[in-house]
Specification:
globular; Alpha/beta knot; 18% strand; alpha/beta; 152 residues; 33% helix
């Protein structure tokens, strides 16, 4: 299981994802450009003392990610997803992809996804914070694929 962030634009959410990836031993792909300056100093500040525990892979663009990414199905978390989270079936090699907080992902990214999952919400609610939604879906994906078994 891996996480990928498409052009994140809120540094605090990137920090939350770095902590999540570090604590659960999940590689985190950062697909740039980001909506804020990204360097080691800023990422260290956003992720506190979890930066050195995380496996971070930076990609300069969507095209570079598509070319260099590991094998596995792209699972897009999106409010426009056809499959509600309780019905989604995950595979251990999945790459959970999350879009920009402000704009999601463009059509070409939607089209590249092998599965589009949405977290069901109360009528009238637009969306969850991207880091919160990512943690929810990652937890379910790890539960389904026995991904927690090597953690203490």
């Amino acid at each position: 299981m891996q996480l990928a962030l498409f052009e994140p634009d809120i540094p605090q959410n990137l920090g939350a994802f770095i902590r999540l990836a570090a604590c659960l031993d999940i590689p985190l792909h950062i697909i740039e450009p980001c909506g804020f300056p990204v360097d080691d100093k800023r990422m260290r500040r956003a992720s506190l003392d979890y930066y050195d525990l995380a496996t971070l892979i930076r990609h300069p663009s969507w095209a570079a990610f598509r070319r260099d990414r590991p094998e596995g199905r792209l699972v897009l978390l999106t409010t426009a997803g056809a499959v509600p989270l309780p019905q989604a079936r995950f595979e251990a090699s999945d790459i959970l992809l999350l879009g920009r907080e402000s704009a999601g992902v463009p059509a070409e990214v939607h089209e590249a996804a092998g599965l589009r999952v949405r977290v069901p919400l109360k009528k009238g609610a637009r969306s969850l914070n991207v880091a919160l939604a990512g943690a929810m879906v990652l937890s379910e994906a790890l539960r389904q694929t026995s991904g927690f078994q090597d953690l203490v």
